[in-house]
Every structure is written in structure tokens, then in C-alpha cells.
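User: My instructor asked us to take a sequence, write out its structure as C-alpha cells, and then describe one feature of it. I'm not sure where to start. Here is the sequence I was given:
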Amino acid sequence: MHHTAGVTEISTKLVVNGSPQELTHDVRVTLLDALRDHLGVTSVKKGCDHGQCGACTVLVDGRRVVSCLSLTASLDGAEVVTAEGLGRPDDLSDLQQAFVDRDALQCGYCTPGQVCSAQAMLAEAAAGMPSHVTDPDALADPDAVVELTDEEIRERMSGNLCRCGAYVNIVAAIRDTASGRAQTGEERA
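Assistant: Let's start with the prediction itself. The C-alpha cells for your sequence are:
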């Protein structure tokens, strides 16, 4: 750590979309700004910059976080996955392909955050993590799986806003992926 005219800089190591990165930055730099301004990862969008819209959602060590409220300095050694890390244009993940197939985007600004949030949400549901609408009796059995109804998906995705109103198609894309109806790469070929 070194000080320059009242500003403290720190070095942080991250693995971003599988690639090791080391940044020297002001201790106040958010993960959102580090990804966009220092590393050129532009799929991460700055929406409200107050943690309320979800456009900047990324995965940090497999969990979804709003990157505009996460200080980079607190994430030393973390693995960060953005929409680019989920798939490539010529090899989309099943979830990304479901978003395309269901036309679950209009302007596309919120889509990278929606996809990252949905990816983590599917893992949370698969791990049996309840939401506010999950029937607690349905999870009484330790082997129970959360049924991802439309209500359940909407509740779990409520932190990601879409100004275009593509919610119906977003829910359908997530439902397709959860039920295994999303096409795999082999089926699309």
C-alpha cells in the first residue's frame, strides 16, 4: 500500500472470467469501476450506482453481488465472473441461449446483470436455499428441491430491474433453463 497526495492505493489480485489480473487502484474503487475502467470488461453496466437496479450484477466466488457496492480492495483473491465468462458469442451458455430464444431482452442494457443474477439464482435454488415465497413445508425433507415456479423466479430476480419490461420473457427463459428445456450447444448445431 502506498500513499499519494492523500489517496491510498492498493494492489488487488482477482481472477476475472478465468484470467488472473492484478490491479493497483485507489482503495475506494468499486468492483464495477475496476472491471470497466481498469480491465475493460464492458458487459458490466452502471445503472443506478446505488445497488438498486442490478445492472452491475456479477458473480464473486459463485455468489451474485452488485458490483457498484463492492469495494475491489475487499475482494483480493476472489474469482469474478461476468456475462462474458458464462459463454462466448459462438458458444452461449444454456441460460444465455434461453434469453435469446425467448427474446428476453429489448434494449439489452440490463441483460448481463440479469443473466449473472439468474445463473446464481439457479444455483441457489438447486442448493435448496429458500426465498421469501418458498413454502417452508416443501423444504422439510433435506433432499427437497425448490420448485422454480414463476412466482419463485420473480421473487428471486426482484433485485434486477428491466426498464423495457421484458420480465415475462426473462422468467420464461429462466424457467426453460431450470427445467432443462433450454437447448444445449449440440442441439443448436
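For the description part of your assignment, you could build on this observation: The mean pLDDT is 91. Try explaining in your own words what that tells you about the chain.
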